[in-house]
Design goal:
single chain; mainly alpha; Helicase, Ruva Protein, domain 3; 30s ribosomal protein s13, domain 2; two-stranded antiparallel sheet; 47% helix; 3% strand
């Protein structure tokens, strides 16, 4: 089954498979299936054509995949252009929602980079220290 340009896994339950779409989470899935009148425990490959069409019709009301990504990136771009605090945090690759950065924030800031003293042998090889003769 293919929805919004994404292949949905065939062997999974429909409530899990729909969450593969960007912008659809577990809570949204329950709403969608209720509106489309489909049992959540049904497998994706056992859905009839008519049931698939009902799901796609309900999903048309949601903003998904590319449209949602474009909207989010546009919002971040607007924050950066206006010079808002959150925009500055985004441009510096730091947490934008008030999290501490002294001890955590590794996923946002990346791998640790040790800043400190350089050993004499390494400094000599780099040409920073002139070796004494």
């Amino acid at each position: 089954m293919r929805i919004a340009g994404v292949n949905i896994p065939d062997e999974k339950r429909i409530d899990i498979a729909l969450s593969y779409l960007y912008g659809i989470g577990r809570n949204n899935v329950n709403e969608i299936l209720k509106k489309a009148e489909i049992d959540a425990s049904k497998r994706t490959n056992s859905l009839s054509e008519e049931e698939q069409k009902r799901i796609q019709k309900v999903l048309e009301t949601y903003r998904l995949e590319g449209d949602l990504r474009a909207e989010i990136s546009g919002n971040i771009k607007r924050l950066k252009e206006t010079g808002a605090y959150r925009g500055i945090r985004h441009s510096r690759n730091l947490p934008a929602r008030g999290q501490r950065t002294r001890s955590n924030a590794r996923t946002k800031r990346g791998k640790r980079v040790t800043i400190g003293a350089i050993k004499k042998e390494v400094a000599a090889k780099m040409g920073i220290l002139e070796s004494k003769k």
